[in-house]
Amino acid sequence: MTIRTRPFAQVDVFASGPISGNPVAVVLDATDLDDQQMAAFARWTNLSETTFVLPPADASADYRLRIFTPGGELPFAGHPTLGSAHAWLEAGNSPQGDVIVQECGAGLITIRRDGERLAFAAPPLRRSGPVDDETLVEIYTALGLTPSDVVASNWVDNGPGWIGLMLTSGERVLEVRPDFSALGAHEVGLIGAYRGDGAGTDYEVRAFAPGDGVPEDPVTGSLNAGFATWLRATAEIPAHYVAAQGTALGRAGRVFVDDDGSNIWVGGTSVTTITGTVHL
C-alpha cells in the first residue's frame, strides 16, 4: 500500500454560527484509495460521515463522491454532499454549468448556489409507505414513545434507510431519550412542529442511526429531504421552512427547505474549519 499526501478539509455543515452544525471530513483526492482504506479512515475520523472525491465516471458530473460512516458506505447523504461541494469549490474547482452535479451511489445529485448557501435537490425516495406494526412497537419502546405521541409515520428511505416519525410538537422531539441498544439497526428520524416560539425555526428534527456507528447525528440532510418529500403533498408541512437539528447535542444546526413545485431544495451554510493534508 502506497501512502501519499492528499488535500483535506473538514467542513461544518448546516451551521448557524461557529462550530454549530455537523462536521464532515473531505479527502479531496481519493484517486487510488481502495474500499478498505476509505472505510478505515472513516472509522478513524469517527465523524458521522467522511467523503472521498474522485473523478466522475459520468461525463455530465463534475466529480464523483463516495460517502462512508464509521459503519460502512452510504449511496447518498445530505450534509456530506453539501460539505464536499463546498470544499471542492474552495479548492479552486468550477462546475461545467450553472449548477454542480455530483455523482454518487444514488446517481446524479444537483447542487445549486442559494445566496451564501448551497442546496441539493432531494433525490426520490427509494422506499416509502407505512411502517409495519412490529417495527413501530420496537421503535416506540426504544424511544419511550406512545402512539399518542406520534402524528404519523412512514418510510423515508432515500439512501440511508430512514423511518420517519412526526411527533406532536418540537418540544416532544427534544424530550425523547433513546435506548440505542434497543433501537438496534433501525434508522429513525423525528420531526415536530413548533406552534409558538421555536427560536426562529419551524420544526425540530432528530436522527438516530446506531447501526451505522452514529447514535445521534447532529444535523442530517438526507433525513430532512426525506421528511419534506414525504410530507410535501399534505397540509402538515409548508413549502418553505427552517428546521433546527442538533439542539439535544448542544449544536444549533439550521436546515432550509424550499419546495419550488418541481424540486425540493435542502440547504444550509457550510464553513471550512480545518484545511491541510492527510497521509493516506
Overall geometry: globular
User: Helix count, per DSSP?
Assistant: 6
Structural class: alpha+beta
State the major sheet: 8 strands, mixed, barrel
**Spatial order of strands in the largest sheet:** 1-2-3-4-6-7-8-16
Taking the alpha carbons of the first and last residues, their distance comes to: 9 Å
Q: What is the C-alpha radius of gyration, as a whole number of Å? A: 18 Å
Q: How many individual β-strands? A: 16
Features:
280 residues, alpha+beta, eight-stranded mixed β-barrel, 6 helices, globular
Tell me about this structure.
This protein is of the alpha+beta class and 280 residues long. It is built from 6 helices and 16 strands. The chain has helices at 35-45, 78-90, 133-143, 170-175, 180-183, 221-231; strands at residues 5-15, 22-27, 50-54, 63-69, 72-74, 100-104, 107-114, 117-121, 150-155, 162-167, 187-193, 203-209, 214-217, 240-245, 253-259, 264-279. β9 and β10 (162-167) form a beta hairpin. The model has no long low-confidence stretch (mean pLDDT 95).
In terms of topology, how is this protein built?
Elements lengths: L4 E11 L6 E6 L7 H11 L4 E5 L8 E7 L2 E3 L3 H13 L9 E5 L2 E8 L2 E5 L11 H11 L6 E6 L6 E6 L2 H6 L4 H4 L3 E7 L9 E7 L4 E4 L3 H11 L8 E6 L7 E7 L4 E16 L1
Parallel strand pairs: 2-3, 4-6, 10-11, 12-14
Antiparallel strand pairs: 1-2, 1-16, 3-4, 4-5, 6-7, 7-8, 8-16, 9-10, 11-12, 12-13, 14-15, 15-16
